[in-house]
Design a protein that fits this description.
about 400 residues, alpha/beta, Aspartate Aminotransferase, domain 1, Aspartate Aminotransferase, domain 2, 3-stranded antiparallel beta sheet, 14 helices, 12 strands, globular, EC 2.6.1.83, aminotransferase
């Protein structure tokens, strides 16, 4: 007997998701008896710092941490986040009005459209881009206008290409540099251009910023959007503990920026969830406030993996560029697969057990590429390349 109900139309654009699709392909490969080498998900395999785990462990036996956590209970975390930001980027931050704790930064980027878009409004998103950026817009009843990122423009959008009719209906622009999946970086001058453009067209500028520490050149810290908008006129930035501190499963991050936007996002958050467990925030405070040596160890580990993986690909005849940020390799597919990245990734996992993310899953302009996440030791990455050679 069929169900007598109808699901919301807003779910239709969410029917396909690159990570969910690859998860199903991995399940089929496991069922066929293949050993999976999963390079499809950017979830670090490295441990969180010992001091962080110790702080969380001590909190577990403190029953005062076990209850619901409202906004004012996150004060110590917000203060630590503001101080971290001021040390790193030199911009003063008010932890009471300009910082909001999040259950991972994806919660913030996913919910922000509910705070700034009315049904039918446009959001300007990068293509290729992170899938949750579009998902939040669709759930808010908004429309997506994609800004193409092309290799010949260093994977930066060209704002002059956005049609006037779209701009008249647009309320939000989302950027993310260092960029996932392309690994591109952006200069402070680019962000200054983006801020001026958003000020001119009265757009909220959201910057998804998971990778500020994950660069191989320690002297070249990626700029924050707030360095281009120090008065926080239009900008909000999202940071996660997942990459810098290997705390992906702990689901903790924060938003920082324009007080009015932060307040609006806080109202959305209050209607949907409470905050993260206080014990985890205690660990996050230690991470933000303590020595940052673990970050350099992680970056050096990923540097070694990058060098081994790229060299191995070159040895089998796949010439890929050497990325300057940790965790990913964005590889242009050989001609045979240049218009079928999904087919390549499905064939790869089903024939060899190696899972990667198809570029088309990140948007139309991601077609012709594949993203590998360097979340295994060098010996496993070399084995993955040996298997990749079977499909190439």
């Amino acid at each position: 007997m069929s169900a007598r109900f109808q699901l919301a139309d807003r779910l239709e654009p969410l029917r396909s998701n690159v990570f969910a699709d690859m998860d199903r392909a991995k399940a089929r490969a496991r069922a066929a008896g293949l050993e999976i080498i999963d390079l499809s998900l950017g979830s670090s395999d490295l441990p969180a710092p010992d001091a962080v785990l110790e702080a969380i462990g001590q909190s577990l036996s403190d029953s005062s941490t076990h209850g619901y956590l409202l906004f004012h209970g996150t004060q110590a975390f917000r203060q630590a986040a503001a101080q971290w930001y001021e040390r790193k980027f030199g911009i003063a931050v008010n932890p009471e009005t300009e910082v909001l704790q999040l259950i991972g930064s994806q919660e913030g980027t996913g919910h922000l459209p509910l705070a700034v878009l009315n049904p039918g409004d446009f959001a300007l998103l990068q293509d290729p881009g992170y899938p949750s950026h579009a998902g939040g817009v669709y759930l808010a009843g908004g429309q997506v206008y994609t800004m193409p990122l092309r290799a010949d423009n260093h994977f930066l959008p060209v704002f002059a290409e956005i049609p006037a009719a779209v701009l008249a209906q647009a309320r939000l622009m989302v950027l993310s540099y260092p960029h996932n999946p392309t690994t591109a970086t952006a200069s402070l001058a680019f962000f200054q251009e983006a801020v001026a453009f958003c000020q001119q067209h009265q757009l909220v500028l959201a910057h998804d910023f998971p990778y500020p520490d994950m660069v191989f050149d320690a002297t070249d810290i990626p700029p924050s959007v707030l360095q281009a908008d120090p008065d926080k006129t239009v900008s909000i930035e999202f940071f996660t503990m997942s990459k810098s501190y290997n705390m992906g499963g702990f689901r903790v991050g924060y938003a920082i920026g324009n007080a009015e936007i932060i307040s609006a996002l806080r109202r959305v958050k209050a209607a949907i969830d409470f905050n993260q467990y206080l014990g985890i925030l205690n660990g996050a405070i230690v991470a933000l406030s303590g020595a940052q040596d673990s970050i350099r160890v992680s970056v050096d580990t990923f540097r070694q993996r990058r060098d081994v993986f790229v060299a191995a690909l070159h040895q089998i005849g796949w010439q890929v560029a050497l990325p300057n940020i940790a965790l990913y390799v964005w590889a242009k597919l050989p001609e045979r697969w240049s218009e079928n990245s999904i087919g390549f990734c499905q064939a790869l996992v089903e024939k060899t057990g190696v899972a990667a993310s198809p570029g088309a899953g990140f948007g139309k302009f991601g077609e012709g590429y594949v993203r590998f996440a360097l979340v295994h030791p060098p010996t496993v990455l070399e084995e993955a390349v040996r298997r990749i050679a079977q499909v190439l």
